[in-house]
Amino acid sequence: MIDLKGKVAVVFGLANKRSIAWAIAQKLSEAGASLAICYQSERLQRDAEELAADLPDAKTFRCDVTLDTDIDTVFEQLKTTYGKLDILVHSIGFAPNIKNTVLQTAREDFRIAHDISAYSLIALARAAEPLMPEGGSILTLTYYGAEKVFPNYNIMGVAKAALEATVRYLAADLGTKKIRVNAISAGPIKTLAARGIGDFTKILNAVEERAPLHRNVDALEVGNAALFLTSDLASGITGEITFVDCGYNTTGL
């Protein structure tokens, strides 16, 4: 059993009980970590507080990752509250007008998608680094649409490709500080964010048909992988994209 007692984990992007971030938070908490849950705005505050109430020793903090002032403020709060960080989970992604094809993507929509989905990892990692003097683990969430074209994923796929490259470069930048940076490429899961992808059910059906396990992945399975990757058992793993998709990415026809 993985033991995270004495570890402090901060999770960004927890929106509701269907989110992958919630599954990860549950698994980290079960392993004994102290949890800091960051929500984007006052609109999401109640949901975050209700979820945090279900986890022992969990606290909530507000942070809009598009604002450097918010990032500075929340990491000062984390420093005051915990004194250190051991784990950072980045479960954030957004693309405006995702129904537009890549060809039709407006310049501003491209900027927003990359700012929120990819640059935010850089900004959070930079702020977390001083609170990880003895090393730590940073984990983000991506999707196979970064490597292959999926119908209706559009500019989000381009942004996720940028995120995956960011993981590798941050791993190189932070390796000498004993901070590992990895990503999980989760299979499709019925989250609130997934509702914005057209014909999402077709993707679920395709995975069930073609994946070696002939089913879709459960969010808690992603949580289990996150627990491993953020623990000392994965001390030699960094800069990697780990698939948790029932093997779908390994198939051809």
UniProtKB/TrEMBL annotation:
The keyword Lipid metabolism applies. Coiled coil: none annotated. GO terms for biological process: fatty acid biosynthetic process. Substrate binds at A95. Its EC number is 1.3.1.9. The active site is at Y143, Y153. Keywords: Fatty acid biosynthesis, Fatty acid metabolism, Lipid biosynthesis, Lipid metabolism, NAD, Oxidoreductase. NAD(+) binds at G13, S19, I20, Q40, D64, V65, I92, K160, I189, K190, T191, L192, A193. Pfam families: adh_short_C2. InterPro entries: Enoyl-ACP_Rdtase_NADH, NAD(P)-bd_dom_sf, SDR_fam. It catalyses: a 2,3-saturated acyl-[ACP] + NAD(+) = a (2E)-enoyl-[ACP] + NADH + H(+). It comes from the Bacteria. Pathway: Lipid metabolism; fatty acid biosynthesis. One of its GO terms (molecular function) is enoyl-[acyl-carrier-protein] reductase (NADH) activity. The keyword Lipid metabolism applies. Belongs to the short-chain dehydrogenases/reductases (SDR) family. FabI subfamily. This is Enoyl-[acyl-carrier-protein] reductase [NADH]. It comes from Granulicella arctica. The lineage of its organism: Bacteria, Pseudomonadati, Acidobacteriota, Terriglobia, Terriglobales.
